[in-house]
Amino acid sequence: MAFTEIEYGVTDRIATVTLKRPERLNAFTFTMRGELIEAFDRADADDDVRAVVVTGAGRAFCAGADLSGGGGTFGHPGERLGEGETVDGAPRDGGGTVALRIARSLKPVIGAINGPAVGVGVTMTLPMDVRLASETARFGFVFARRGIVTEAASSWFLPRIVGIAQAMEWAATGRVFPASEALEGRLVSRVYPQEELLPAAYALAREIADNTSAVSVAAVRRLMWSGLSASSPWEAHAADSRLMAELGGAADAAEGVTAFLDKRQADFPMKVTRDLPPGLPSWPDNPYGV
């Protein structure tokens, strides 16, 4: 698949996904939606990829849905937004298909939010593991100001990230707010001058790539995200314990301990594409969860 609205590349075991419609502030389209899903499929299938960085071309991250269709954009979205899919008789929004694919990623995902991130431009970042922002970034859950509702499973993600009160304030007002407020509200982890944003994102990705087991990180990511819906710490403990039993005697654990004792860099032999443990918390086989 040749990409036309994103760029995808791998350097030093880090995949970079760049939203690339700078003349439209990287507004989200049906084409972009399909390309983003394909990019994460590629990253998961490539054992050389240890982390994914997502950013935008030009001065925006993503200004939201492409509204060039006018007032009927959300009523008859068709190929403009990637709507129209029906699962068990229920329509599924296009941004949600991207968010769910990112949620299923086996590689950690770092959002490098370089400018405005509004509507689907911010909700697509919620299943990313770490969000970093430039000082010029602005955020907006503007759906109520467009007469629609929060999408892309953000009604699940956002309250878990920032708390229900902050989530409702941003969603009910629909106002656009600066990076400083996003940091205070815990939507982003850190804010950088524009020129320092991507280097910071890559430094974090390299720390993962250079020092950790790919299989361990994939398992930890699944444990963390599935743990948000665990009914109790006892349920989470059972999931942790299954994976400790399976991975504790595996090759990466032996290498990790030996390298530590030898005071050398570990060279983990296990691969995500072949060595994921059977006790990994299960997610639906169907990408939509039905």
UniProtKB/TrEMBL annotation:
<dbReference type="InterPro" id="IPR014748">
    <property type="entry name" value="Enoyl-CoA_hydra_C"/>
</dbReference>
<dbReference type="Pfam" id="PF00378">
    <property type="entry name" value="ECH_1"/>
</dbReference>
<comment type="similarity">
    <text>Belongs to the enoyl-CoA hydratase/isomerase family.</text>
</comment>
<protein>
    <submittedName>
        <fullName>Enoyl-CoA hydratase</fullName>
    </submittedName>
</protein>
<dbReference type="InterPro" id="IPR051053">
    <property type="entry name" value="ECH/Chromodomain_protein"/>
</dbReference>
<dbReference type="GO" id="GO:0003824">
    <property type="term" value="F:catalytic activity"/>
</dbReference>
<dbReference type="InterPro" id="IPR001753">
    <property type="entry name" value="Enoyl-CoA_hydra/iso"/>
</dbReference>
<dbReference type="InterPro" id="IPR029045">
    <property type="entry name" value="ClpP/crotonase-like_dom_sf"/>
</dbReference>
